[in-house]
Amino acid sequence: MAEPLLELSGVHAAYGDAEVLRGIDLVVGEGEVVVLLGANGAGKTTTLRSICGMVGTRGSIRLGGTELVGRPTEWIIRRGIAHVPQGRGVFGVLNVEENLRVGAWGRKDTKAIEADIERWYGVFPRLGERRGQLAGGMSGGEQQMLAIARGLMARPKLLLLDEPSLGLAQIITRGLFAQLEDINREESVSMLIVEQNAELALSFASRGYVIESGSIVLSGTADEVRGNDEMRRAYLGY
Amino acid sequence: MSPNIDNPAFLLQLLVGGLTNGALYALVALAVVLVYKTTSHINLAQGEMATLGAFVVFALTQQGVQVWIAIAIALVVSFVFGAGVERGLIRPLEKRGIFPVVLATLALFLIINAVIAIIWGTQPVPAPEPFPREIEDKIDVLVGPPPFFITYVALGILAVLVLLLVGLWLLLEKTKLGLGYRAVAANREAAEVMGIPVGRMFMFGWGIAGALGTLAAALVAETAGTLDFNSMASILIFGLAAATLGGFDSVPGAAVGGLALGLIMAFVPGLFTFIEGDLSLVIALIVVLVVLLVRPQGLFGTKTLERV
Amino acid sequence: MSELDDERSMAALASDERQRGALVSARVVLEGSRSHRVWQGTGLLLAALVVLLLPVLVSDFRIGQFSLVIAYSVAVLGLNLVTGFSGQISLGHGAFFGIGAYTTAILVTDHGWAWAATVPLAAVLGLALGFAVGVPALRLHGLYLAVITLAVGVAFPVVVSQPIGLALGTGGVAGKTARISWDKPGWFGLDVSDRGWMFLVMAAVAGLLFWLATGLVRSRVGRSMVALRDNGTAAAISGIWPAEVKTVAFAVSAMYGAIGGSMYLLTTPIVSPSTVGFTVTLLFITAMVLGGAATVSGAWIGGLAMVFLPYYTAEWAGQIPFLRSLTDQPGLFANVIYGVVLIVFIYFVPGGLVPLLTRLRTRFLRIVPPEAAAVATDAAPGSATTAGEPDGGLAGPTPAIGGHPTHSPEAPIRTDQETTR
Ligand SMILES: Nc1ncnc2c1ncn2[C@@H]1O[C@H](COP(=O)(O)OP(=O)(O)OP(=O)(O)O)[C@@H](O)[C@H]1O
Ligand SMILES: [Mg+2]
What we know:
The complex is a heterotrimer.
Chain A: E1 6-15, E2 18-28, E3 33-38, H1 44-51, E4 56-63, E5 66-67, H2 73-78, E6 81-84, H3 96-103, H4 110-123, H5 125-129, H6 140-152, E7 158-162, H7 170-187, E8 190-194, H8 198-204, E9 207-212, E10 215-221, H9 222-227, H10 229-236
Parallel strand pairs in A: 3-8, 3-9, 6-7, 7-8
Antiparallel strand pairs in A: 1-2, 1-4, 4-5, 9-10
Helix pairs in contact in A: 3-6
Chain B: H1 8-39, H2 46-62, H3 67-90, H4 98-120, E1 125-126, E2 138-142, E3 148-151, H5 152-174, H6 176-186, H7 188-193, H8 198-224, E4 226-227, H9 233-246, H10 251-271, H11 280-294
Antiparallel strand pairs in B: 1-4, 2-3
Chain C: H1 3-20, E1 27-30, H2 34-57, H3 60-85, H4 93-111, H5 115-134, H6 142-160, H7 163-168, E2 176-177, H8 194-218, H9 220-230, H10 232-237, H11 242-264, E3 270-271, H12 278-291, H13 298-319, H14 321-326, H15 331-348, H16 353-361, E4 365-368, H17 381-386, H18 390-395
Parallel strand pairs in C: 1-4
Antiparallel strand pairs in C: 2-3
The structure holds adenosine-5'-triphosphate and magnesium ion.
Magnesium ion binds at residues 44-45, 86, 162 of chain A.
């Protein structure tokens, strides 16, 4: 098998003294969508943060064969990763359009950037209507849309999404996942998605991992994960 | 109350004098703000770095370099120096909170202050004169008596402030560099995740601040007529007061705060004659205290100066 | 080298020593035990003996220098209290020092007061000014306090030379002279000069002030100060009143500064705006960091540095023709060195010299608090470095500047996350 796009092996991470990740092994293949499930505080966000070099990390994280551990965030992002942080990670005092332009920071193709901006205005009309408005003055859901669009502006190889459905209306969430599916299919952007809406995420992802107190306790194809009894009780509720 | 209260020439003179000084405070306040916005630090050596820059101008003009070219060179040197200080001295302390950084800037204060005095002596030297400052270099507005006139120096300083504000606005609002700088200022962590080289934005802010400071010090020297190793000690306080008044994270706030402070310091002693001597530092202190008690974030600021 | 490495290597060293039994193994003493008190008593006695003998043994010139050390040490101690122990930035210490010096000078020269009578008034004025500056500290944090105290520190020397200062008798730019000298009383047996006698009186006053400061930092208020510094929220929850504690710290700090200023006039017959300028504040700060911000005894080291560093620098610079040709004010070189020393300490010795010396001492003598007695022979690295010493013990595990939390040795390794201390 060819080298996977992203490969975590034996990843430990900690905030100060508190170890949060205790040896994570995780793989995202080229063009694959993988979902990461787990209870609150299990370490999902921390996993994404350690991929981006935003938390003290040990172990190995490889992107297309390149070691990321020990590199500064900026360097990692330039290798083709986009991270949509959990909650409101938008630039409040910048307007919508400026936020999108910041998302395209590493790109030089001015024309394509303009086209992409218009594209995401098409997908999220709310953003198009508010392009001149300060991001800080928008609703939580609108900010979430902006954060996702901003992440996609980077045209990443790998998209890390931290609870993208947080604060979005059902219908918007479904629309969003449809969009993500399109992007994945058409541009073969790989995705690692953290999601509380496990059912929805598993219907879209090809594989899933379940994390508990900083360790992976279950992994497999989406169906396998969905079919696991414990998993069902804990996260799917049936 | 001053007996000249109803004398228009007197009041106009106070107004212009206040605005001119205020423009200088605004320049220093801008330097403070540009450092603060991204790094959340205050460079207490800003004034000394500025004085050093002004001495570079002085040294170059002594060598026969035309004054504006000397200023241009000094601005570049100051930019590099400011950025270098951020990278070399401040950044390694970044994660240890405000106190080590405050101490480091104080150390820099001591060193630069002493080095200037060692190289150029403790006696004042004649200031470089970017604007003509002979007695006849003025525009007469009211013939008087009493007359009212505006000197070229005052006009020049105000013009510099206006040009700088326009330039800064273009730089911050219309360039990619400016976008990155504002993104870091708005949300450092998110900016990092966007792949923005945060460290370089810090250096950019410190560099611009260094250059602004030098410009301010050169102009302060011109208004005073002389330049010495302690030229900027009080001006830094006025700059900090102006930044407090305008809001530590607001560029327009720094400009407004500076001008307002200049006016306060012209009109308060001008109109209340029981204030004897130069108590401008006390006035600045009072302004800071009042602002902090009434509106800690300043006129235009968004966040209060807290960094735990 | 990080402090952490230091601590670890020291602990490792200690246990190595025990295992090999080769080197001198450290003597372990229980805090508060009889033998601890004997050690303490011996130390104090020795110190007192040195102080008493100094004026007998060294010249009046040196005694003048040591008197100045005392005056500065008292002032620096004030800074330690507010910045080191209570974690508040104070950039106006030169002003507090100045209040004391000017009060004494004016009262002695213009009103014929005795020096000793001026000290309480200077102290009260310092306390009042410190209180006035400390009140904004009730609601302001870090950098605001820096701005306000900086403004006070810069404004003070300017104001004393303005008409308002002149009206009070400050003597303006030229400064205020005050000649104070006492004769050695007949009953005093030691063969010392009048200067030496003054030195001994100063030493006694300073001894009292240091003793009081030690008491303060050990008191409830002192412990609250440290708790607040290390974690304001937690301290507030556990019933400490931040406002009161912070203001008290500021006021007491200013009082020490003012008394230091009064004592200064016993060594130097004039105080001028340049004596109390912002540079002096910077030197106080450097001295504090040098000795150890969160220590009481560090103030001595700071005072010594403030006197002897410029003295020897000037001597040294005077001998090098190139340096001599640069400036006629060799004191400037000392300022450069101060700045460099400050940077070096911030980076490499953020805890200052006293914790370093304490650690050295633990090689030979370890003082262990009773609770830790059970594990006395295998004390944890943290307690090995700080236990027992009145300063270290109070400073707790965070004697470093800025009071940021110590990292445990087990913290995961990612170099850019760990700070080099
Ligand atoms: N900045 C931080 N400092 C210290 N501890 C943190 C920090 N961020 C998270 N933690 C701790 O790390 C653990 C994992 O947090 P993480 O954010 O990765 O959880 P999560 O799985 O994303 O949870 P959620 O579903 O609530 O988003 C939690 O116990 C949390 O308390
Ligand atoms: Mg999370």
